[in-house]
Amino acid sequence: MEDRQPVLELQNVSVGYDSPAGMVQAVNDVSLKIYENTIVGLIGESGSGKSTLGNAIMHLLKNNAVLTSGTIKVMGRDVYSLTKNELRQFRWSQMAMVFQSAMNALNPVLTVEDQIVDVFLSHDKRMSKQAAKKRARELLEIVSIDPAHLKSYPHELSGGMRQRVVIAIAIALDPKLVIMDEPTTALDVVVQRSILDKIKEIQKIKKFAILFISHDFSLVSELASKVAIMYAGRFIEVTDSQSLMASKAHHPYTEGLIRAIPHLTADEVTIEGIPGNPPNLVELPTGCAYHPRCRYANDLCKRVRPEIRHVENRDIECHLYETVQK
Ligand SMILES: Nc1ncnc2c1ncn2[C@@H]1O[C@H](COP(=O)(O)OP(=O)(O)OP(=O)(O)O)[C@@H](O)[C@H]1O
């Protein structure tokens, strides 16, 4: 596996936001490789840095954000060494992103057909408009939308249909990497399920790699083969999803996330939240950033930040993994 070229390679990536309060350490020294034909889930509470990392990979960071260290390679190319023009070509054809809100991703004054045709024509100057229209129709069929909707405007479609259009646009140029940032969060459960099934189906055929961002633990563990758990900008546990669900030994934060999955009993739904709040990313706690919320934390956790270690079949950032987790 190691000698294959990863589709995505993150090496010690850190991203900070310049803010009036100081530098917000949104992503803090993360490394990860994703190979073709795999889905990797990125889970964490709100504010843990998931979207910032997704945007950083796409080189779409906000103006006040900087990649403070590390390299991001997609198909072996350092995304931050590309010229503006190269980057424009690289996006969509090598890497694409599906954002949370389809409504914001689509242009309200263009028909679905025009928006898809635009993607083709702007990347392939030799393609005829007629050929692009044909491809647009095929794409809608792939995402199970009646091609009659080619002439629809975004506001004429349901939320689920709009999100399918966004997915169609993302995969239009057969990118090797698709980042999906909570692509179904705004949708009801039934629509969410049908879109997830569609994503799985298309991924199986196209074999691209997906980085699937979500705060929904059950959803990600079902969809992804590997999962990275993010806390305060760091990957505190990275493992395959089978071991994640089967094993009882986890990072204490992962354990908390699993306990927070709603449990259905006879006539009750119980949810056990993680006590406390995520830390202030301008002034991280000393030692392990999770220690103020961790039920096992000891003096070492308060003083020394744990290094990421490979233990059993996971990468884990916890001093106490071997002692209290079994
Ligand atoms: N433009 C910005 N300026 C300053 N800080 C920001 C900015 N955007 C995000 N942040 C901060 O960066 C941190 C990470 O935010 P990010 O949106 O990446 O988290 P997330 O895990 O994707 O959360 P969510 O699930 O709510 O989208 C948060 O503390 C957030 O407040």
Account of the 3D structure:
GO terms for molecular function: ATP binding; ATP hydrolysis activity. InterPro entries: AAA+_ATPase, ABC_transporter-like_ATP-bd, ABC_transporter-like_CS, Oligopep_ABC_C, P-loop_NTPase. One of its GO terms (biological process) is peptide transport. Residues 8-257 form the ABC transporter domain. Helix 4 packs across helix 5 and helix 6 packs parallel to helix 7 (189-206). Helix content is 33%, strand content 25%. The strands form three sheets. It has an eight-stranded mixed sheet with strand order 6-7-8-3-9-10-14-13, sandwiched between helices. The chain has a four-stranded antiparallel sheet with strand order 2-1-4-5. The model has no long low-confidence stretch (mean pLDDT 91). The chain is globular and about 70 Å long. The chain is α/β, with parallel strands linked by helices and 326 residues long. The protein has helices spanning 50-57, 84-93, 102-105, 112-123, 129-142, 159-171, 189-206, 217-223, 241-246, 252-259, 299-303, 321-324; strands at 8-19, 22-34, 39-43, 65-74, 77-78, 95-98, 177-181, 209-214, 226-231, 234-240, 263-265, 268-270, 309-311, 314-316. The structure holds adenosine-5'-triphosphate. Adenosine-5'-triphosphate (ATP) binds at residues 17, 19, 24, 26, 44, 46-52, 62, 64, 215, 281. Adenosine-5'-triphosphate binds at residues 17, 19, 24, 26, 44, 46-52, 62, 64, 215, 281.
